[in-house]
Amino acid sequence: MTPAAESPHATVVGHGSVVSVSRDDRHRFSKPAAGSIRLRAGFGVEGDVHAGATTQHRYLLKKDPTRPNLTQVHLIPAELFDDLRSAGFTVAAGELGENVTTRGLSLRTLPLGTRLHLGAGAIVEVTGLRSPCSLINGYQKGLMKTLIGTDAAGQVVRKAGIMGIVVASGTVLPGDTVRVELPAGGPRPLGVV
């Protein structure tokens, strides 16, 4: 893991806000909203089933239980829910299993290694895109097809949020600001984690 201090070569590019925070201590599709969540460096969201230094995702756990946990925190922009509503779906914060719902940030366009400063002290480093699984169709029929599409160039576009690791501990509450710090060097696109 990288140190929590900001890189002198990094660029702060924008601000957004936290709309909602969620956690669940069991493997269920949706996560209930919470008044706050505590992020712990190298671990994830306290009290959440996906927290840990090694992977806790059921599918990845079967493949390699020693794999580093690059999916400690799941973030989704609230704007996705607005788009889904226009397509006939009703989805609220936490219902797609995310820990943090944001507004005002284009999360999936952020480069690998971007740091999101949440609230007073928590920092999450972006590790990749979430690839939605077929359980989404069990939640709402046809939703998966809406969350994975293609752009004008024929490239796959995944809209189910991003994943990250906690590099600085802190408490996150709805209404907190999110400050975006780009990594030093050239941008590296997000892959699926």
Give an account of the 3D structure.
The chain has 193 residues and is mainly β. The chain has a single domain, classed as M1 Pyruvate Kinase, Domain 3 (Beta Barrel). It has 4 helices and 13 strands. It has helices at residues 58-63, 78-86, 135-139, 143-147; strands spanning 11-22, 33-34, 37-40, 44-45, 73-77, 100-103, 115-118, 122-129, 148-150, 156-158, 162-168, 170-172, 177-182. It has a 7-stranded mixed β-barrel. Strand 9 and strand 10 form a beta hairpin. The longest helix is centred in the middle third of the chain and has 9 residues, at 78-86. It is globular. The model is unreliable at 1-6 (pLDDT under 50). InterPro entries: MoCF_Sase_C (IPR005302), MOSC_domain (IPR052716), Pyrv_Knase-like_insert_dom_sf (IPR011037). This is MOSC domain-containing protein. One of its GO terms (molecular function) is catalytic activity. Residues 31-181 form the MOSC domain. It holds the Pfam family MOSC.
What keyword list fits this structure?
seven-stranded mixed beta barrel; disordered N terminus; 4 helices; 193 residues; single chain; three-stranded antiparallel sheet; 13 strands; mainly beta; M1 Pyruvate Kinase, Domain 3
Short account of what is shown:
The protein has helices spanning 58-63, 78-86, 135-139, 143-147; strands at 11-22, 33-34, 37-40, 44-45, 73-77, 100-103, 115-118, 122-129, 148-150, 156-158, 162-168, 170-172, 177-182.
Question: What is the radius of gyration computed over CA atoms, rounded to a whole number of angstroms?
Answer: 16 Å
Give the distance, in angstroms, between the N- and C-terminal Cα atoms. 16 Å
| CATH topology annotation | M1 Pyruvate Kinase, Domain 3
Task: Specify the CATH homologous superfamily.
Answer: PK beta-barrel domain-like
CATH class: Mainly Beta
Strand order across the biggest sheet? Answer: 1-6-5-11-8-7-13
Beta-strand proportion: 25-35%
